[in-house]
Design goal:
6 helices; elongated
Length: about 250
Amino acid sequence: MTEISFSHAEGHRLKLMPGIDLSKINIMKLSKIITVLALTVFIFSCSSSKITSSWKAENAETKPYHNIMVWAILTEKDSILRKQMETHLVNDLAAKGYHAVSSLAVYKSQAYKKLTAKEIIDEFKTTGVDAVITLVLLDKEKEDKYYPGGVFNQPVNNSPANNNGILDRYYSTVYERIFTPGYYISTTNYFWESNLFEVGQDKLVYTVRTKSFDPASTERLAHENGLMIMKDMLKKKLILDKMPEED
C-alpha cells in the first residue's frame, strides 16, 4: 500500500547553450525516473511481517481443540479488514484439521455491539466453542518520507580524460540533477496483538505481537499474519500439526 508522488524543483532555470543535445538530457532524466520507480516498486512489493514478541503460559499443553473461534476486535469502519483477518486464520486452522469459525459468523448482527460477559459465555456454550483466538489492532502508523530529486554531493567529473564535450556533459549532468523531480513515499505499518484463550478454564495460554511493514494489501496482511501465528503456535506446541480425524 505504498504511495509515490513526485514534486518538481522550482525556481531553477538554466539558459540553453549552443550545440547541446537536449534529447540526451531528456533520455537521461527519463532513465533515472524509471530506475527510481523500478527500485521503489521492487522494495515495497516485498512487504515484511514479523513477530516482535511471543509468550506461552508455563503449564500450557498441546490440545486438540474441537471448536476454535477467531475474533478480530475491530470497529465497524474496519469491517473489511476484520473479515479478512478472521477468514485467513480460520482457513489456516482448518488446513490443520481444526474446526474453526469466524466471530462474524457466530455473532452476526451483534458482531459490532459491545457484548456483556453473559452474552459472550452464552454464545460459547451454544456453539460449543472451547478456545478463542483474539486479534487486536494495537496501532496503525502512516509515514510520509520525502526523497530529493537529482541533488547529489558527488562532484561532476571534469577530469582531463573527459575533455571532449566537457561543457555538454557538465550541462547535461547539472540539468539532470536540478530538474529530476523529488518524490514522496507513504508507508503504512500495522501492529497487532493476538491471544489464545481456553474457554473451559477461562485462561490465557498464549500471546503474540506482530508487526507488518507496509503490506501490499490488507488481504496480504491477513494472509501473512495468519501464517505467522500458526507457525509460532506450532513451534510452541500449542496446537497439533494435524488434528486426528474424528470417528
